[in-house]
Amino acid sequence: MKTILSGRTREVIIDTGGPVVIIGESINPTRRKKLVTTLQEGNFDFVLELAENQIKAGADVLDVNVGFPGVDDVKLLPETVRILQDRFDIPLCLDSPNPRAIEAALKIAAGKCLINSVNGEEASLKALLPVAKEFGAAIIGLCMDDDGITHDPEKRLSIAEKIIERAVKAGIKAEDVVIDPLAMAVSADPQACRVTLETIRLVHQKLDHNITQGASNISFGLPDRESLNSAYMAMSVYNGLTCPIANPEKITSIVRAADLVLGRDDFAVRFVEYFQSRQ
Ligand code: THG
């Protein structure tokens, strides 16, 4: 199954049988004070720097999250989208809990964006599916609903199925629903990663949909996050993860290695190219 996103002109194809597509996570104010202070000053230089560094490091899509306490994201998200797309021809993943901010951003965005995110709650489906349909956007469907977050992978799978069904009823193509199995901190719950890995396997085998996740979430609160994130990334890709939200400056080499190991990089061309570009 293929999900196609686009920037001003350039298309990115996320293919359940193809190599991993990296959604750069770094435009996110969580623990990035400089991003908050510069955005508050109306200064977008640091956002552009984060974008450029991620693209150089292998990001195919950029996640854009400008949520922080007190922000008017209905104004700031579209502004940030405009400034990013004026400079870079890359598809964007609009990361906001506010449907009005997402809609405002889609109104001015070029190409085909990914809405981050819709979930199985009635309120979320009702607010965002019509918006996705109207603007021809793809969506991320989070495996949680009005009952909250379940630890049962089969139940997460059925929430994924429900979101896909409702999206198709709303006129969205099934392939434009990317599933998020919910990656959470393993420091808080020893079984968190196992549950998510099993959900990835089920969604991949039973639905063959593209799968994303906030891959760096799992290492919150622990030292040596890079080792943990790397181990988890390799296992996730093996199970069917196709478009992680992650830090390309740290994860691209592991992703290229995983693609090579899984037979998706004939003669190691991309692996070697990436290695040489880093020398
Ligand atoms: N699912 C979906 N969207 C999401 C998440 C998800 N968006 C937000 C988040 N989770 C994914 N994004 C991040 C961004 C940064 C970090 C983790 C998840 C992070 N950053 C390091 C830090 O804050 O210390 C810094 C990383 C670095 O500098 O290298 O941990 O789950 N759909």
The general outline is globular
Distance between the termini: 35 Å
Determine Rg (CA atoms, Å). 18 Å
Strand fraction equals 5-15%
Overall pLDDT metric = 98
Low-pLDDT runs of 5+ residues are none
What is the number of independent domains? 1
CATH-defined topology: TIM Barrel
Number of strands: 9
Largest sheet: 7 strands, parallel
Give the fraction of residues assigned to helices. 40-55%
Tally of helical runs: 10
Bound ligands, named by name, code or SMILES: (6S)-5,6,7,8-tetrahydrofolate
- Label the structural class: alpha/beta
Highest CATH level, the class: Alpha Beta
Walk across the major sheet and give the strand order.
8-7-6-5-4-3-9
By CATH, the superfamily comes out as: Dihydropteroate synthase-like
Task: Using the 3D structure, state the CATH architecture.
Answer: Alpha-Beta Barrel
SSE string, helices as H and strands as E: EEEHHEHEHEHEHEHHEHH
What does this protein look like?
With 279 residues, the chain is α/β, with parallel strands linked by helices. It has a single domain, classed as TIM Barrel (Alpha-Beta Barrel). It is built from ten helices and nine strands. A seven-stranded parallel beta sheet has the order 8-7-6-5-4-3-9. The protein has a two-stranded antiparallel ribbon with strand order 1-2. The longest helix has 17 residues, at 153-169. The radius of gyration is 18 Å and the shape is globular. The model has no long low-confidence stretch (mean pLDDT 98). Bound molecules: (6S)-5,6,7,8-tetrahydrofolate. (6S)-5,6,7,8-tetrahydrofolate binds at residues 25, 28, 30-31, 65, 95, 116-117, 140, 180, 183, 212-214, 216-217, 245, 247, 250.
